[in-house]
Amino acid sequence: MQFTIATGIASLAACTTVLGAAMPEGLSVRASTEGYTEGAMTFQGTIHGVEYSGSGSIQDMYNDFKDAHPDVVANNNITASGHALAERALENKAALNCCGANPGPPLDWYFAENGVIRNEGIPYLQNFHGLCGVGARNCVRVSCSYDSAIRLCNDNYYDIYPNCAYIASYAADLVDRCGYFLTRGWIHVPATCGQEFDTDNYNVIVREERC
Question: pLDDT tens across 29-45, in order?
Answer without folding.
Answer: 332 334 578 899 999 99
